[in-house]
Specification:
The chain has 430 residues and is mainly β. The protein has 2 helices and 34 strands.
């Protein structure tokens, strides 16, 4: 310890001696005035918040003169144009410039990311400087990023959207419109988290059993379940249709059918957990309330339904007609173009009483009487009234076409605004 202290003392003495040998420090001369007190920088001006029914492309702001909200099938849609005096929803699309957003009811009242959202939505723009052909789930090549807030409540739709286009242009949109009577269908059909609205329900009561079938497809007859993309079902004893919570041990069967992949997932064939309840209205035999949260061998099934179901035992009568936007049109003739071409497709043209044609184009092998969906071929699409519906354009669709001796049977739908049935003669186009 003494040795350690001696070292510290010697070091201190050496530092003092070294300091005493230094030259005297120069006396300070005149010093400059101290720096003035820094002044705060003026704040960066904020970008003005968009007013209702206006849009901004980069730094330029414009006004929407006409805005309308409507139902498109089960979807809620709003469209706006800079043109004045456009009084109805459909007429907006006849203008040179317009902006359009449609969402599944399951997205109503939420803000969602256009890049990652899997719920159904569509954004289209013909605005000068901000053209977007179609932005939808898994169709985001035209943008770098984007968010949308969509809310319809109290007869008023309020929508804001912010997008960075692929070329770097910034687009901001604010739209609002009032329209009473917009239907917001919050019934849910979900397989593995892919939420869709329930569009159609069927029920069947036989031998002390009640079965309920739910599908996102808009169809009219039970037999058409064979051509939808998928549907779910619950089968219970009549005594269990009381609306109280049941475990999987209390049900006869539950599951779903994926027609595209020829897959049936049934609670009797796979390990199933979860709960459900089904209420059959005693005062209204067609009214059902359904809630189910099931895990079937690792696949999840979520159902929510409160509404009117169609009696499955009402038999379909063959109708040679096209139902378009809810309006039926008789099909007067059918023509099949079977000429060989590079893509190996056939085109079926169905002439309606309007004098126009609905066209179904599919690979040659799809004309075998089996149901096929858009997702099974990029060469499968439906055309009508100036619109093309295909998987690439964000649409769903199914067709079943069977060729006989001089006759053809057709069932087809895009699950939105087109439903076709035809059984009869056809002419081959040469």
């Amino acid at each position: 310890m003494k040795k350690y202290l001696s070292y510290i003392i010697m070091t201190a003495v050496a530092l003092v001696m070294a300091a005493s040998c230094e030259k005297p420090a120069p006396q300070p001369g005149p010093q400059p005035d101290p720096d003035p007190i820094p002044q705060p920088k003026p704040p960066t001006p904020e970008v003005d918040t968009l007013k209702e029914n206006s849009y901004r492309i980069d730094d330029e702001t414009y006004t929407f003169q006409s805005v309308a909200v409507s139902n498109l099938g089960e979807y809620i849609a709003i469209a706006a144009t800079p043109s004045k005096g456009v009084n109805d929803f459909q007429s907006i699309f006849e203008q040179d410039e317009y902006f359009y957003v449609a969402v599944s009811p399951l997205l109503n009242g939420s803000e969602f990311d256009l890049m990652t959202e899997t719920g159904l939505y569509t954004v289209i723009s013909t605005l000068e400087g901000a053209y977007l052909e179609t932005v939808a789930p898994s169709m985001t090549e035209e943008i770098q990023e984007g968010k949308c807030s969509f809310n319809y409540a109290g007869n008023k739709a309020v929508v804001t959207i912010s997008i960075t286009l692929a070329d770097g242009a910034k687009l901001e949109v604010s739209m609002s419109a009032e329209e009473a009577g917009i239907i917001v269908n919050e019934n849910i059909f979900s397989i593995d988290g892919n939420d869709k609205p329930v569009r159609t329900a069927f029920y069947q009561r036989e031998d002390g059993m009640t079965a309920i079938y739910l599908t996102p497809a808009g169809i009219d007859f039970f037999e058409d379940l064979e051509i939808v993309t998928y549907y779910a079902y619950i089968i219970l004893e009549d005594s269990q249709c009381h609306g109280k919570t049941l475990s999987v041990n209390d049900i006869v069967a539950a599951g779903y059918v994926d027609n595209v992949n020829s897959l049936v997932v049934d609670s009797n064939d796979t390990e199933t957990t979860g709960i459900l309840n089904l209420l059959a209205d005693q005062d209204d035999p067609a009214h059902f309330v359904v809630s189910a949260d099931l895990n079937l061998g690792g696949s999840t099934l979520k159902l929510r339904f409160d509404g009117t179901a169609i009696d499955a035992l009402v038999k379909e009568t063959v109708r040679n007609e096209l139902i378009y936007e809810g309006q039926p049109y008789e099909i007067e003739a059918a023509y099949l173009d079977m000429k060989q071409n590079d893509s190996g497709t056939y085109t079926l043209s169905l002439k309606t009483e309007r004098g126009d044609y609905l066209k179904i184009t599919m690979p040659e092998g799809f004309f075998d009487g089996n149901a096929y969906g858009f997702s099974q071929s990029p060469d499968f699409y439906i055309e009508y009234d100036g619109q093309v519906y295909s998987k690439a354009l964000g649409s769903s669709g199914t067709a079943r076409v069977s060729l006989g001796e001089g006759t053809i049977e057709v069932e087809a739908t895009n699950y939105e605004n087109i439903e076709v049935t035809y059984v009869g003669a056809y002419e081959q186009v040469i």
